[in-house]
User: What shape does this take?
Amino acid sequence: MTRKVTIRDIEVINTAPEGINLTVVKVLTSEDGLYGLGCATFAYRHEAVTTYILKYLKPLMIGRDVSAIEENWALMHQNAYWRNGGVENNAISGIDLALWDIKGKMADMPVYDLLGGAVRKAVPVYRHVDGASVEEIVDQVQYYQSLGVRHLRVQSGGYGGGLDMRAPASAPRGALDGIYLNSREYIRKTVALFDKLRERLGFEMDFVHDVHERITPAEALTLGKALEPYQLFFLEDALPLDQTAWFQHFRNQCAIPLAEGELFNNPAEWRQLIVNHLIDFIRVHLTQVGGLTPARKIAILAGEFGVRTAWHGPGDMSPVAHAANIHLDLASPNFGVQEWSGIEPPNFVIQKLNEKKGALLEVFDGLPEFKDGYVYPNDRPGLGVTINEKEAAKYPCSADVTTWTQTRGRDGALVLP
Ligand code: MG
Assistant: This one.
C-alpha cells in the first residue's frame, strides 16, 4: 500500500567549503526524519536561485505528494509560464533531486535501482590535467595513470587564454581587461601538445580536450581535423550552443568524436543533435537542465540514437549532484564516461601547492568514492549523501561578481567564455 507522504517544508543551504558556492536544497516531509537533499548549484547566481526556491517554489510545493515526481516536475516547470531559464532550472533541480532521494529512502533502494538497476559496478571517470609545458603535463598524466585513471582531459593554460586578466601589449590602446585569446596560437599549441603526448606516452590513454566554445566554427573544424591522428576520446564543446547547426558541416569533414552540451538548458538544444547523429556524447549539466527527471529522459533518448552520455561534472556542483550523475551512469547502458573534477583524491595542482583541501568532506558525507580510475556509489537508500549543516555554516558563500567569463579576442572584443 502506498504511503501518503507530503512536503512539509523546503530549506536552502548555501555553503562554500572549498571557495566555490554550492546550493543544497533540503525537502522535509510529513514523516518525522524523512527528508531528501537536492542540488541547485548555480555558483555565480546562488542568491537568485535561493530566492526562486524560497519565494516561489516552496509555496507551490508545500503539501504536495512527494511520490508524484513527474507531476511535481511539470508543475514547477510550467508555473512561471516562461520556461527553461538557468536560475529556474537549477531551482527546480534542487527539489527534483530531493524527491528522488526521498523516493529511494521510502523504497529502501539506491536511486540507480529505481532507474532500472546498475548495468556496471562502477563508473570510469575522466580527470583534468593542465600545465604550462609538455613536461608538466606528462608528469600529471603519469600521476593520474598511477591512480588507475584511463581518461584525462588535457589543457594547456586553461581554455587557451591563460589566466592573466590584463590586456596584452598587442591589444588596441585602451582595450579593456579580460582573458585574451589568440585562437591561432591556441590551435597550433594544442595540436603540438597532443603530438608530443602521443610520442612520449603512446596511445593507451584516452584523452579529451575542451575547446570551451571559444573559437569560431571554421577554427574548431581546423582544430578537429588536425587532432584526428591523435585519436582523442572526444573533443568537448567545440562549438557554442548558439552555433550547433555547424555540426552537420563539421561531421561531413572530420572523424573526431564530438561531445557537447554543458550549457544546454532547453530540450530544443539537445534534441536535434541527438536525433540527427550530430554528436557522439551528450554532456548536459544535470542541475542546469532541471534535475534527474529530465536527465534520465535525455539518456534514454540518446541511447535510442547511439549517442553516449558524458555528464558535466565540474567543481561548481555539490556532491549531491555528483552522486546523481553516478546513479544515472550506473543505470544507463549508453553511458560513455563521467567527468570527475576531483573531490578525492585532491587534484594534482592543489596538491602541488600544498593547500588545504578536504573541507568538502567535513561538510558532506557519503560521496561516491574514487578508486583505481573508477567511482563507486555507496549503497545507501536514495542518493546516499548527507550534509552536516553546522559545518556547512562555517563556509559562507561569496556574492562577488565573477570575472573569468570576460574572455576577449585579440582586438579586445568579447568572445564566449
Ligand atoms: Mg567543459
